[in-house]
Amino acid sequence: MAIPAAAKKCPICSKPAVEAFKPFCSKRCADVDLNRWLTGGYVIPARDDEPMSENDNSIPSYDQDDEF
Ligand SMILES: [Zn+2]
Question: Does residue 51 fall inside a structural domain?
Fold first, then answer.
C-alpha cells in the first residue's frame, strides 16, 4: 500500500515533488525549507548582560581645597 509519489506536492511551492528531491520539487525548495526550519528552531537569546569588570575602584580623591 504505497502512496504514489505523484500525490506528493512540494510544501514550498506546491508543485509536484520530484523523486530526487522528495518531498520537494527541487533542491532550491529543499534548501528553502531547511533554512526556514533552522531559522525557526534556532532561537539565539539576545543577551545584553555582559559581566561588568570589577575595575571600578574608587578614584583616590585628594580633597586639598579645604584650606578655607
Ligand atoms: Zn518547490
Answer: no
State how far the Cα of 32 lies from the Cα of 38, in Å rounded to an integer.
10
Residue 33 CA to residue 22 CA, distance in Å, equals 12
Q: What is the 41 CA–ligand 1 centroid distance (Å)?
A: 21
Question: What's the CA-to-centroid distance between 13 and ligand 1, angstroms?
Answer: 4
Give the domain extent around 23: 7-40
Chain segment 33-53, per-residue pLDDT in tens? 999 888 876 555 667 776 766
Distance 16 CA to ligand 1 centre (A): 8
What's the number of domains the chain is made of?
1
Q: What is the CATH number of the domain that holds 36?
A: 3.30.50.10
Q: What is the pLDDT of residue 18?
A: 94
Is the entire prediction scored with pTM above 0.90?
A: no
Ligand 1 geometric centre to CA of 5 (Å): 14
